[in-house]
Amino acid sequence: MTDKKEYINKVFFHSNENMKELPDNSVDLIITSPPYWDIKDYSKTGGELGNEQKHSEQNEADMGAIKSYEDYINRCLITWKECYRVLKPGCKFCLNIPTVNRRGKMGAYSISYDMRKNILENTPFKFFNLVVWHKKSRPNPFSEGSWPFPGEIYTWFGLTEDIIIFVKPGEHPDEYDEEIWEKSQLTREELNEFINPVWYILPPRTRTSEHSAVMSLKIVENLVKMYSFVGNLVMDPFTGSGTTLKGAKLLDRNWVGYELYPFYKSVIEKNLGVKLADELPQEQVEPVKKVDEPEQKTKIEDLMF
Question: Whose CA is closest to 37, among 130, 99, 93, 84?
Fold first, then answer.
């Protein structure tokens, strides 16, 4: 049996397609946002458009660099199957994903719908809940389409993203003492905020960031409070600058992450206020080829909205 000290409060700098350090059923909560498809170059820092700085050679396992939409959706599935393996029964997997990826006048990719459909049809995860993240920010000007003329008018593109919550079937194996229950309680004000199906939260600024797509700390904190207990282990397979891990640490949870680019080690250390152990890969980690769990199909009409 793997000692928890070997993976708790660590970041592993290799592909999350094989999370070999994590035993089966070892994580209490997963919160993540995968790379935007074919929009951002994750081998560059954040900054004003056109002024980003190249920090690394693009890694061949970088899912954000995949050109084919179908390949992107299916490549992410390898990671989601690993997430299923390491998550404890009865626990939640929270996926922040764009609602739509606009790709021209002749149509758009409903990336949130397609990702959810692929997960439910090809893993045993069950759909649990859905939150809409409204960014309260200036929309993409191209959303106006053909205005002032009819024909190609869009709703504001990029103003919302989805937070899809899945659950791993089964009963949570852990029991907590009275002190943990007490420390993990939500206030009435927090409950009233969390049960609103639309969260109005400004996105983080990336123009001055060392990462091109920083996750919202407020969203992470909401999800950590809703779906974990003090002392639980929270995991992010796409760690980036470490926002999920920071939110877990601030709320007295343990954390573990995976990040493809070692450049972000110092950024994560700064955000968490810790010195990370040297977990840089010595060799390429091969993706998992097979998942033991039986494949479970879910019909589209069975999806909950």
Answer: 99
Query: Phi and psi for 200 in degrees, rounded to 5?
Result: -95, 100
> For residue 248, what are its two tokens?
């877990």
Contact 27, 91 (CB under 8 A): yes
Q: Report the C-alpha gap between 56 and 283 in whole angstroms.
A: 17
**Which of 305, 229, 279, 246 lies closest to 29 in space, CA to CA?**
229
Please say whether the beta carbons of 80 and 295 come within 8 A.
no
Rounded-to-10 torsion of CA 261, 267, 272, 276: 60
CA neighbours closer than 13 Å in the CB half-sphere of residue 51: 7
Q: What is the pTM of this model?
A: 0.82
Rounded Cα gap, residues 30 and 220, in angstroms: 10
CATH code that applies to domain 4-302: 3.40.50.150
As a dihedral over the C-alpha atoms of residue 42, residue 47, residue 53, residue 59, rounded to 10 degrees, the angle is 0
Contacts of 285 (CB under 8 A, 6+ apart): 14, 15, 17, 18, 20
Q: Give the Å distances, CA to CA, from 107 to 43, 65, 119, 154.
A: 29, 21, 23, 11
Q: What is the pLDDT of residues 221-275, one digit of tens each?
A: 999 999 999 999 999 999 988 999 999 999 999 999 999 888 889 889 999 999 8
φ/ψ (deg, to 5) at 180:
-65, -45
Sign of CA dihedral 296, 133, 216, 102: positive
Q: Answer whether 219's CB lies under 8 Å from 163's CB.
A: yes
Which tens digit of pLDDT belongs to each residue from 26-57?
Answer: 999 999 999 877 655 555 554 444 555 665 55
Q: Which amino acid is at 246?
A: K
Report whether 157 contacts 139 (CB < 8 A).
Answer: yes
CA dihedral of residues 122, 222, 239, 136 (deg, nearest 10):
100
